Amino acid sequence: MTNMEQKNKNAILLLHCPDTQGILAAVTDFINVNKGNIVYLDQYVDHENNVFFMRVEWDLNQFLIPAEKINEYFQTLFASKYQMQFSIYFTDVKPRMALFVSKMSHCLFDILARYTAGEMNVDIPFIISNHADLQWVGEKFGIPFHVIPLNKDNRTELEKEEMKLLKDNNIDFIVLARYMQIISEEMIQTYPNNIINIHHSFLPAFIGAKPYHQAYSRGVKIIGATSHYVTSELDAGPIIEQDVVRVTHKDNVKTFVAKGRDLEKIVLSRAIEKHIERKVLVYQNRTVIFS
Amino acid sequence: MTNMEQKNKNAILLLHCPDTQGILAAVTDFINVNKGNIVYLDQYVDHENNVFFMRVEWDLNQFLIPAEKINEYFQTLFASKYQMQFSIYFTDVKPRMALFVSKMSHCLFDILARYTAGEMNVDIPFIISNHADLQWVGEKFGIPFHVIPLNKDNRTELEKEEMKLLKDNNIDFIVLARYMQIISEEMIQTYPNNIINIHHSFLPAFIGAKPYHQAYSRGVKIIGATSHYVTSELDAGPIIEQDVVRVTHKDNVKTFVAKGRDLEKIVLSRAIEKHIERKVLVYQNRTVIFS
Amino acid sequence: MTNMEQKNKNAILLLHCPDTQGILAAVTDFINVNKGNIVYLDQYVDHENNVFFMRVEWDLNQFLIPAEKINEYFQTLFASKYQMQFSIYFTDVKPRMALFVSKMSHCLFDILARYTAGEMNVDIPFIISNHADLQWVGEKFGIPFHVIPLNKDNRTELEKEEMKLLKDNNIDFIVLARYMQIISEEMIQTYPNNIINIHHSFLPAFIGAKPYHQAYSRGVKIIGATSHYVTSELDAGPIIEQDVVRVTHKDNVKTFVAKGRDLEKIVLSRAIEKHIERKVLVYQNRTVIFS
Amino acid sequence: MTNMEQKNKNAILLLHCPDTQGILAAVTDFINVNKGNIVYLDQYVDHENNVFFMRVEWDLNQFLIPAEKINEYFQTLFASKYQMQFSIYFTDVKPRMALFVSKMSHCLFDILARYTAGEMNVDIPFIISNHADLQWVGEKFGIPFHVIPLNKDNRTELEKEEMKLLKDNNIDFIVLARYMQIISEEMIQTYPNNIINIHHSFLPAFIGAKPYHQAYSRGVKIIGATSHYVTSELDAGPIIEQDVVRVTHKDNVKTFVAKGRDLEKIVLSRAIEKHIERKVLVYQNRTVIFS
Question: What is the CATH architecture assignment of A3-90?
Answer without folding.
Answer: 2-Layer Sandwich (3.30)
